[in-house]
Amino acid sequence: MAPRRRRKKNRSIIYTLIIVFLLSVLIGSATFAYKYMFEDRYVQVNSTTKIWDTPSDGEKSSYPPQQQPNTRVFGYNKSAGKVVALTFDDGPIPEYTKKYIDILKSMEVKATFFVIDKNAQKHPELLKYIYENGNEIGLHSYSHFNMSKMKPEQMVEELYKTQKIVVESTGVKPILFRPPYGAFNKTLLEISDALGLHVVLWNVDPDDWRSPAVENVVNRVISHTKNGSVILMHEGKTNTLAALPQIMEKLKSEGYSFVTVSELLNYEKNNIANNNQEQQKD
Known about the structure:
Blueprint: H1 3-24, H2 30-39, E1 42-44, E2 50-52, E3 74-77, E4 83-91, H3 97-106, E5 112-115, H4 117-122, H5 124-132, E6 136-139, H6 152-170, E7 176-177, H7 186-194, E8 198-199, H8 214-224, E9 230-234, H9 238-253, E10 257-258, H10 261-265, E11 272-274, H11 276-279
Helix pairs in contact: 1-6, 1-7, 5-6, 6-7, 8-9
């Protein structure tokens, strides 16, 4: 079978799978499933504005530029100038989330939070707190298992569940997805694309999940940050919480400003750097 014909067949299978899954949940979640399938009026672009799916005459679309099928994975944007995106995984966590948000707010910085559905369902009020304080919410799966090892129907369910709780809590549909462990394959990319999700990785990793000393977290971030960096950090870590003000102060002193990941995506898409060749699996 020719590669083009095979890709078209695979995409048809994926769309059919998604439709079948959504129809299967109509009984238990009719309103959300209907909006997800047929309305899809709102997308999360800059975390503070709800933007219509179809712009009126004379207006430009506010979608991020990555409109083609998800053939690349966003790692950082080398053309973005002196801007960086702070990202936090694994929340919301009641002992930490508000503290992170309050520190960001005190320094007039916004960030992107990639949430796990199992945590989000227990604390939907924290999703609202993240969003209402000007930050962006992305998906980080339901279970935090390696999704590249899942069946397609499991992938759809992981993303659907997480997106559902975010929409119900904030009224905004996320457009970003960070796969657990940064692991993905072609099927996960195709499903993400079909669901309107941009796959986001990172290029700065201080290994804060290992709980190194605060000084080490700060130094690793500062030494590896460059124009357009996406900085990976995690909720639930006291060292990260303590390092955050120092990281922001040092980066600001070096002339950096802070944006959400969606805002970073809006810089010249042809110059977006990615980790696709190194990390994509068959």
